[in-house]
Amino acid sequence: MQRAGERSRRADRAPVTRLASGTRMTDPVDRERRAAGPIRPKGIVDLRGQEKSGVRLSFPHNAVVIVAGLPGSGKSTLLNAWAPLATVVDPRATRAAHQAVMPSWLPYRMYQPWARLRHMHWIRREIRHAHPLLVHDCGSRPWMRRWLAGNADRAGRPLHMVLLDVGFQEALSGQHARRRLTSRRVFATHRRGLARLMSSVDGDRSAAVEGLTSLVLLDRTSRDGGPRAQFERPGGDYAGE
């Protein structure tokens, strides 16, 4: 009995991998099995530090998946990899469409509110359909998360978020590498908003996932491992990359 108690205490001190159900996983065999099969996210799924490549995230066919993170964190790269699987709503496409019809001398900030409104109409229209949907958003604004959650709920669709938690230095390096620089003010705003979200992950976890079916956390290691996605069709079949 004493040895069993010691083994139990050692297991409690072992590194914890958060599961969708909120339970703990300490068995290496179970971790191998989890890495080999698809993960169906629910709740907070922490994949930070996951070095294995080929992690598969399996979402329902009608899921709305927000790909979030700081500007430069790798959202666009991940969306490009998953784009064949779903419709992608990207604010850069909205901005480019407006800039194409506006005079070149007119600063974007002058018509940005109108572009944002049109972008939100686009998201709402796509949510009303039943196809898989990927939404490019930093995820830093609570009002936007609530708005997305409300629209998904009214459409009867589960809302998931995949958050790239790579750190601000990595995000800044990503901006320079892609030659797409965000202003210091905008970057600082997103950084503060995501810091508040991440603090709720470590604190009041119910607040972190409010309105979300799942919140999947990736860092640089797990992002560079090339996480894959699939959308399950009714009947058990799926579309996946």
From TrEMBL:
Positions with biased composition (Basic and acidic residues): 1-15
Single Gene Ontology MF annotation: ATP binding
Region Disordered, residue ranges: 1-34
Membrane spanning residue stretches: none
Family matches, as InterPro entries: P-loop_NTPase
Name by which UniProt lists this protein: ATP-binding protein
Domain of life, per lineage: Bacteria
Pfam families linked: AAA_33 (PF13671)
Lineage: Bacteria, Bacillati, Actinomycetota, Actinomycetes, Kitasatosporales
Organism expressing this protein natively: Streptomyces virginiae (Streptomyces cinnamonensis)
Keywords noted in UniProt: ATP-binding, Nucleotide-binding
